């Protein structure tokens, strides 16, 4: 039996923090040893009643030294602009970090254009982007992993196999739809039930801050990525509909199957994908269709899992020398 590895989570109040707790309490090797938020003074089952009788860990007020004293790795499920204040001291203490925020996903200049001034440029030089299909070997040796955004995960996985077939400098169109949980727990007019229920709308078209993340990881200019997200009246799930111009003669389905043939959490579908078949899992389902030189790619993920928490766990497994699939959910919530 493998020796337990103590891990912690800072940021357990939100949806992604809860999803991570649910996976870690049943993980065969990781032992959830420290949980925290910005206030503390509560237990996990009080914070999340769904954990009643399952997890009653005391939720602490986040403290780097206290966490580092008992953990080898920490997950930071904290908001953008907040993670930097934690990563910097954790790195100095030799604690490995999987960061859920955008604070380490982008180059400094682009991050500062879309977010705020970056206060930890030193660790930006050493971070690894946490998409295993792109950077698996680098993740294995990483001390700091930037967990990808949900929209970029679905878009990048859909596009990767075809970048060499794409006509250079032509538009990449990503029309994406996500459930309301992607907006987090903080209430706003946009996510208010009365506004979301029986409704569907785009937000931040062409200017959403996930667009530069997609562009940077695909190695294209920001002007080439035309990204429009939509909010749909669902709790969870995400589908990206992607359109690109291609060149040369090739079978898109054959190409994508070959590209991902050794990837356990990418499934190629013969029929258009849907949200239910990936809900509750780490899978990304992909469907492709050609019309002359126009290629349509549809990719489906669970925005809270493959788009955040289960992908973070896969990264942590790799960082600690474990089986990448350890503790990863693979059965959907299909009724």
Automatic annotation (TrEMBL):
Catalysed reactions, as listed in the record: N-acetyl-L-glutamate 5-semialdehyde + phosphate + NADP(+) = N-acetyl-L-glutamyl 5-phosphate + NADPH + H(+)
Keyword list, A-Z: Amino-acid biosynthesis, Arginine biosynthesis, Cytoplasm, NADP, Oxidoreductase
Main location: cytoplasm
Listed SUPFAM superfamilies: Glyceraldehyde-3-phosphate dehydrogenase-like, C-terminal domain, NAD(P)-binding Rossmann-fold domains
E.C. numbers: 1.2.1.38
CDD domains with a match to the protein in the record: AGPR_1_C (cd23934), AGPR_1_N (cd17895)
Domain named Semialdehyde dehydrogenase NAD-binding: residues: 6-142
One GO cellular component term: cytoplasm
GO molecular function terms noted in the UniProt entry: N-acetyl-gamma-glutamyl-phosphate reductase activity; NAD binding; NADP+ binding
Taxonomy, superkingdom: Bacteria
Localization in the cell: Cytoplasm
Residues at the catalytic site: 150
GO annotation (BP), single: L-arginine biosynthetic process
Keyword Cytoplasm: yes
Pfam family, one: Semialdhyde_dhC_1
Pathway(s) per entry: Amino-acid biosynthesis; L-arginine biosynthesis; N(2)-acetyl-L-ornithine from L-glutamate: step 3/4
Function: Catalyzes the NADPH-dependent reduction of N-acetyl-5-glutamyl phosphate to yield N-acetyl-L-glutamate 5-semialdehyde.
NCBIfam families, alphabetized: argC (TIGR01850)
Protein name: N-acetyl-gamma-glutamyl-phosphate reductase
Gene expressing this chain: argC
């Amino acid at each position: 039996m493998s020796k337990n590895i103590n891990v912690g989570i800072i940021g357990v109040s939100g949806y992604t923090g809860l999803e991570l707790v649910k996976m870690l309490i049943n993980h065969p090797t990781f032992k959830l040893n420290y949980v925290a938020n910005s206030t503390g003074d509560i237990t996990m089952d009080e914070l999340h009643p769904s954990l009643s009788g399952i997890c009653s860990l005391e939720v602490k007020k986040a403290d780097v030294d206290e966490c580092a004293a008992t953990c080898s790795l920490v997950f930071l499920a904290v908001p953008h602009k907040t993670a930097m204040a934690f990563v910097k001291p954790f790195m100095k203490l030799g604690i490995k970090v999987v960061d859920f925020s955008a604070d380490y996903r982008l180059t400094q200049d682009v991050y500062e254009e879309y977010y705020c001034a970056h206060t930890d440029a030193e660790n930006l030089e050493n971070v690894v982007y946490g998409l295993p299909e792109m950077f698996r070997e680098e993740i294995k040796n990483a001390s700091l992993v930037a967990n990808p955004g949900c929209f970029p995960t679905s878009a990048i996985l859909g596009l990767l196999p075809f970048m060499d077939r794409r006509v250079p400098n032509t538009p990449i169109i990503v029309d994406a739809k996500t459930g309301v949980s992607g907006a987090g727990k903080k209430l706003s007019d946009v996510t208010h039930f009365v506004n979301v229920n029986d409704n569907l709308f785009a937000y931040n078209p062409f200017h959403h801050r996930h667009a530069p993340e997609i562009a940077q990881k695909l190695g294209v200019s920001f002007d080439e990525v035309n990204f429009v997200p939509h909010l749909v009246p669902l709790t969870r799930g995400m589908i990206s509909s992607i359109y690109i111009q291609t060149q040369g003669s090739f079978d898109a389905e054959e190409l994508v199957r070959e590209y991902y043939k050794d990837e356990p959490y990418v499934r190629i579908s013969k029929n258009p994908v849907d949200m239910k078949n990936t809900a509750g899992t780490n899978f990304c389902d992909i469907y492709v269709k050609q019309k002359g030189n126009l290629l349509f790619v549809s990719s489906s993920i669970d925005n809270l899992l493959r788009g955040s928490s289960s992908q973070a766990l896969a990264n942590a497994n790799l960082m600690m020398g474990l089986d990448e699939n350890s503790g990863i959910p693979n059965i959907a919530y299909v009724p």
